[in-house]
User: What shape does this take?
Amino acid sequence: MIKALVVAGVAGLCLLLCGCQPPKPKFEPMGDKAPTLGSSGKTSFNDFLVGRWCVDDPFAGGIDKHHFYEFKSDGTFTCGQGTMWKCTGKWASNTNSATLSYLTMNDESYEAYRAEVKKGDESGVQALIQKALIYDGVYGFLDKSNVVYVDQDQKHLTFSPPTQAPPPGSPDTSGAGDLAGILAKGSTKLERMDQQTQ
Assistant: This one.
C-alpha cells in the first residue's frame, strides 16, 4: 500500500516538474440516456440540477459540448465556451427552477469586464472592436439566461418557462398554430453531460 502511494506521488511529481498535466476530464452529451427528474437519485430539483450541462441551441447549430454550465451542490456554478470565456456565479433554487447570478467573467467582476469591453469598443482599435462584438453576443446570451427551468421532457433544462401542452384533440385557441410549436422546439436548452472514462 505504501509502495503504491510512493509510486503515485513520484509519478505526480514528475508530471508537475516536466510541465505535464493529467488529461482533463472529457464530457459527452447523454442524449436519451439522461436521467429524468425523479429518477436515478435525481428526486429533487437541486439533485437534478447538479452536474455538467451543454448548450443545445437549434438556431446556432445544435449541441455545442464546449459551451457548458456546471452546477455544484454548494450553490455555485461555472459556465463558459471552450477557452473563449469563462464565467462563475451562484444559483438559488425554487421548486423546478433556479435563478442564476453571474459574478465573474474571465476572473474579473462580471460588470467590470463588461465595462472594460465597452471601453475597448469605443477606443477605435480594430482588435478591441472585434472583441467587443464577440462579448456583446456573450453578454446578450447570459443576460437572457438568468433563470433555468426543468423542461417538459423532464430530462433537459431550459431558459424559458415550460408551457403546458393542450390535451390531445383540443382546439388551438392561441392563434399561433404551428408557429408556437416550432418556437418551442427551437428554444435553447441544456443537455446533461456525462464524464467519459478514458
